[in-house]
Amino acid sequence: MASRTSDIELYRLVARELDCTAQTARKYVDAIVEVIAKEVYLSGTCRVPNLGIFDAQHIDEKIQKQVHDGELFEYRMPEHVKPIFTPCDTFINDCNMKGVTKMYRRRAKNKQLTVRDLQRIAKAEAIERLKKVSNETKEAAQVEFAEKLKEKREAHDAKHNND
To answer: H-helix or E-strand containing 87?
Structure first.
């Protein structure tokens, strides 16, 4: 399982994408979260372009029973709203770095890819090229390290054989 991005890391990533400071990025992120929360609270739904839809699911009050140390305890779970997120097709395709949704496949079949589809394809190809270059660099470094280690061992063995 991949590690989660911390708040600070997210602000830095947003700042890099927007070419601004992490503090400014934090203001943007916080404002977006605030708008989503208010809209879900007030209207029960909030659609975020290229991300998805946040809907409010109403949960009624209920009594929850739990056993602790052989004793039965009852807890009152208050009535509340639970946000439900439904990603849009664009977000699903972006997360996969390729078109995987039915709508994408239909557009591809009809040769009607959107600008965003083409950008996603180009971005995925660029990432693959970077991975290839970094793997080649890593392999070259490993070979170089192995050679230097072999030289050191040979020098060490030659020194101890002469003694």
So the answer is: strand 80-87
Cα separation of 14 and 19, whole Å?
8
Measured CA to CA, the distance from residue 19 to residue 16 in angstroms comes to 5
DSSP 30-86: HHHHHHHHHHHHHHSEEEETTTEEEEEEEE--EEEEEEETTEEEEEEE--EEEEEEE
Residue 163's pLDDT is what? 60
Phi, psi of 66 (to 5 degrees): -140, 150
Burial of 97: CB neighbours in 10 Å, binned 0-12, 13-18, 19+: middle
Record the pTM. Answer: 0.69
The closest of 58, 45, 50 to 87, measured between CA atoms, is 50
